[in-house]
Amino acid sequence: MLRSIRFCFSFIHVSRRLESTPATSSVAAWPPIAQAEFCVVSRRNDSLGPRARWTLFASLCAVSFGLALGFAALGAWMVLPYSAAGMGLLYGAWRWFERHTGDWERVTVTGDRVLVERESGDARTRREFNRCWTRLEVEDGAPVRASRLALRSEGESIRFGDALPVHELNRIARELRRVLARR
After folding, report:
1. 2 in a structural domain
2. pLDDT 10s digits, 74-127
3. The total number of structural domains that make up the chain
4. How far apart are CA 171 and CA 176, in angstroms?
5. Within a domain: 114
6. Euclidean distance between CA atoms 58 and 129, whole angstroms
7. Residues forming a β-bridge with 99
8. What is d(CA 58, CA 8) in angstroms, rounded to the nearest whole number?
9. Which percentage of the chain shows pLDDT scores above 70?
10. Is the per-residue pLDDT at 10 higher than 50?
């Protein structure tokens, strides 16, 4: 008798702070997957939260502007434009990071389909593969980058697990290979 084993790994840091935020950055934003044999959801850790992040940004800007004013008072007024440029670049980086705090990825195996969904910034992609033709490969990472998983089928490839630690990636790879082999 063939038994269907259902489980869902979820690498999401959920706290009371996240539960009170809008649905775009909470677990409720993901559509439900019924009768999934395998489901993995990957999301980056947002340990600071938006309020703490912007407080840190304001603190860094205040220190930078304070030091620039101090140097300007001593006659080195050329520090002010560079300090302003640095704060502008920091603001751009903060905005980019803020835009990507709600990014997530999900791999689901249901019946004869493998579904890969990803939301990054404002873009949401969804790819569906035939389970029999899908293979999982672990792309070895360079010294500065961790390994990643790649699902390949019908000449198409999609990466998964950019936000996962290596030990979790290996565990997911083992489980996903087992589930894909059980066609």
Report:
1. no
2. 999 999 999 999 999 999 999 998 888 888 999 999 888 999 999 988 889 999
3. 2
4. 9
5. yes
6. 46
7. none
8. 39
9. 78
10. no
Q: What is the DSSP letter of 101?
A: T
Amino acid at site 33 = I
The answer to whether position 1 is within a domain reads no
Q: Are 112 and 39 members of one domain? A: yes
Single pTM value for the model: 0.66
Residue type (1 letter), 110: T
Identity of residue 98: E
d(CA 16, CA 24): 15
CA–chain centroid gap for 91, Å, is 21
29-88 residue pLDDT tens: 344 566 778 888 888 888 888 899 999 999 999 999 999 999 999 999 999 999 999 999
Terminal CA-to-CA distance of the chain, rounded, Å?
Answer: 14
Write out the DSSP string of 128-166. Answer: EEEGGG-EEEEEPPPTTS--EEEEEETTEEEEE-TTS-H
Task: Name the one residue in this structure whose structure tokens are 């002010």.
Answer: 80
Retrieve residue 155's tokens: 């000449």
Structural domain including 77 reads: 50-99
